[in-house]
Design a protein that fits this description.
The chain is built from 5 helices and 7 strands. The chain has about 180 residues and is α+β, with helices and mostly antiparallel strands.
Amino acid sequence: MDRIAEFVRNSLATLMGKAPAGSATGSPPAAPAWGAEPRPTPASLCAAITVADFRAVGLQPDLDAPVVNPADDGDGGAGAYCSYTRASVAAGGIEFDVFYDDDPLAVQRTILGEGGGAVTPASLEGADECLLGRSTMPGEAAHASIVVRRANCVFTIAIPDGPDAAEQLRALARLALQRLPA
């Protein structure tokens, strides 16, 4: 669990434009078994929310397709970091990160620990847990985020904060829940 948490923390730090901490040590928990289903690729995970989806809710991604970075713990789990803007979230960008792991609560805690703001529970059909948050960290652009957990999947979407941010995030999260493997 420590290795997974550190991996997620370092990857999030890199996406936020911060230097990641030292290398991970220890053994991660066993990753999800995909059974007869093919293991999702990072690109297929990022495809759960498209540039057109962000534009449909009133956001302005400046890329025609997301930049896809794999988040693989090396033990069979699956994950992706998906950037829809040249700027990181800390600089006003748009990101969608998704992880499948046998310890989704640990992944969720790691994401929340990196968020830098207070979160509140929110209702979202199909989710085991949904949390909305806003962050106004010094030196960073204000952004809103949603963290959603369903079974062994955890994802987060971060967008520039604004008056419609909560509804935009819920709409995008509903699409992700429909499109991501259960």
